[in-house]
Here is the input.
Amino acid sequence: MIFCIKNRDYDSKNTDLIVKNTFFDTKICIMKIMI
Here is the structure.
């Protein structure tokens, strides 16, 4: 989860990647929880 938050914060600066980042970040969070 920490990685997800950091990744989102890093991409948060790019408004164009916010939508894509949100989806990618969510996928990472799910994978981390499953592992």
